[in-house]
Amino acid sequence: MPPQVVPPPTRQLRDLTWPEAREALAPETVVLLPIGAIEAHGPHLPLDTDVIIAEEAARRAAVRLERRGDRALLAPTVSYGVSEVGACFPGTVPVPPEVIAGQVARILVELARWGPRRLAVVNAHLEPAHVAAVRTGVERAVSVSGAAIAFPDKREPRWAAGLSEEFRRGARHAGGYETSLVLAADPAAVRTYLLPDLAPVWVDLPAKLRAGARTFAEAGGVDGYFGNPAAASAEEGERLFDALAAMIVAALDELDPARPPVSAPNRP
Ligand SMILES: [Zn+2]
Fold first, then answer.
1. Ligand 1: distance of its center to the CA of 42 in Å?
2. How far is the CA of 240 from the centre of ligand 1 (A)?
């Protein structure tokens, strides 16, 4: 496989000094906040798989925005999430929903306080309680800051339509979908030598969770994965990242551009 051609790095808030941040956090700047989780993703993917996917999707969305003339800035990632379903596997570190909701709300409000009026939350961890907590945080931040904040949910049929058959079937944890994305974003992170021996696990995980399963193991994923990781490829991951970046930009474009700021940004 030829080496991946990586576009130039997009600006990251964490790299800036405060005078640089003052300039970067302009009202027209779009801020992207990646959110992941520290959670078991089968024997073949690292615990920070959702962090890798969220950061790369946000970075590629930022590249798209900049190519068309928007200013984009990546905020430091929220790396922990509500990952109770994976807590039967070593290394999974869940935090409570109210902690995520409060942290997400506060981070977005503080980012908006310095100027930006459009932000997007790029979440890669799909546990229902986690998505609900992030949504609570986003709604609080919108009401407090008056900023417009996109939070596209890739599980919605209109976004899922551009992803994969496996994703739409609900076998969407550490299978072909996520393994392909990590192969595209950080190939060295995938234990590819294990892939041929991983038998497909065709379980509709969201349906199992709705039916009362509390862990991956209870849902039938005894090794912490669902779907078909052996079918993953970097090419499929590239296609999926394109779809995710397009989703994020489309969700930003759906925000009301005329939304007035509730309060003027505070600057020292
Ligand atoms: Zn994941």
1. 10
2. 14
Q: Please name which of 44, 72, 151 lies closest in space to residue 104, comparing C-alpha atoms.
A: 151
| CA 180 to ligand 1 center in whole angstroms | 12
- Per the prediction, the chain carries an average pLDDT of 92
Q: Are 31 and 116 in contact (CB under 8 A)?
A: yes
User: Ligand 1 centroid to 25 CA: how many Å?
Assistant: 30
Task: Provide the greatest CA pair distance for the chain.
Answer: 58
* Residue ranges in the chain whose pLDDT is less than 50: 6-7, 259-268
* 176 CA distance to ligand 1 middle (Å): 11
pTM: 0.92
pLDDT at 3: 57
Cα dihedral angle (223, 182, 33, 10), rounded to 10 degrees?
A: 170
